[in-house]
Design brief:
43% of the residues lie in helices and 10% in strands. It is mainly alpha-helical and 301 residues long. The strands form two sheets. Strands 3-4-5 form a three-stranded antiparallel sheet, with helices on one face. Strands 1-2 form a two-stranded antiparallel sheet. The longest helix is centred in the last third of the chain and has 21 residues.
Length: 301
């Protein structure tokens, strides 16, 4: 809605045999409320596909969705549709206003940032970033967590590396762009979270030698640490003391507090990557939930 000036783009809806709509979702889309519309006179292939989808949703294996759940969904839909979209007191109007506030904060903070670029301002529930030249190829080839966001901004966000499903991003974004050069940050937390992310982003985007405190490193030191880590293959080193010694040799000016934070973050990423590797090559959400978990605890910085 933000990208379309909060207008439903009915003219852009393609002429398909059917459409599905998600009203809301939880647990990273593993639980959804929504509905499907379809043409009764569509080709046999489309109606057969629809029958296959519905047979799964209505199967006993799915828990034989109770009548209360269906009626509950319809009550939600009636509530959502009870007021016009352009009414700020409607469910969708209020939701759009909340999302717009968060998007505006993030878009302003990362505008013109020399390290990272927001690719989808105002579009959807996730902000997608691409690392800029000079900051690409610095994450290890296995990592699922963005080392830049974690080490520089103190934010846990994914690289979305599995989302390419075997495609080569360099074909679309140019030579030298890899699957770990993207960041996906969800936009569903309280607006004050994004105001704090924006505050930190403005500091480092304005000066690559600056850091935001809390033991986090500057963008310039991040490059030195990650380059050293790649050169010395630190993600393959098992013990913390060896990692510390190698980093002290490579980047001796890093303070003890920052070095410990870097090591903490590296250990976390290595542990997550080992768990996620069991989900290769599909990396479907059910497997990732089972191996990595559904949530993290906020760190007291």
């Amino acid at each position: 809605f933000y990208f379309n000036d909060f207008q439903v783009p009915t003219d852009d809806i393609p002429d398909c045999s059917g459409w599905s709509y998600a009203i809301t979702k939880g647990y990273s889309a593993s639980v959804r409320a929504g509905f499907i519309t379809y043409k009764k006179d569509g080709p046999a292939s489309s109606t057969d596909a629809l029958a296959s989808i519905l047979s799964d949703f209505n199967s006993l294996g799915y828990g034989s969705y109770s009548e209360w759940s269906w009626w509950g969904q319809m009550q939600l839909q009636q509530q959502f549709m009870s007021k016009p979209v352009d009414d700020p007191t409607s469910w969708i109007g209020a939701y759009s206003s909340l999302m717009k506030e968060k998007w505006d904060v993030i878009e302003e903070a990362f505008s013109g940032c020399p390290m990272i670029t927001l690719t989808n301002p105002g579009q959807g529930a996730y902000s997608f970033f691409i690392m800029n030249e000079g900051f690409r190829g610095l994450s290890s080839t296995e990592t699922h967590i963005s080392s830049f966001m974690q080490d520089v901004l103190g934010v846990i966000a994914t690289t979305y590396s599995w989302g390419f499903r075997g495609a080569d991003p360099s074909e679309y974004y140019g030579d030298g762009v890899g699957t770990r050069d993207f960041v996906r940050m969800q936009m569903y937390r309280d607006v004050n979270v994004y105001k704090e992310v924006a505050r930190r982003a403005k500091i480092v985007c304005a000066d690559t030698t600056a850091d935001v405190g809390f033991g986090l490193v500057s963008p310039d030191d991040y490059v030195l640490v990650q380059s050293a880590g790649t050169r010395r293959r630190l993600h393959q080193v098992e013990d913390r003391e060896t990692r510390r010694q190698l980093l002290q040799e490579e980047v001796p000016h890093i303070s003890a507090r920052k070095l410990e934070k870097v090591l903490d973050n590296m250990e976390m990423r290595v542990a997550i990557d080992k768990k996620a590797s069991t989900c290769a090559p599909e990396y479907n959400m059910n497997c990732l939930f089972d191996t990595i978990g559904r949530s993290f605890q906020d760190s007291q910085l």
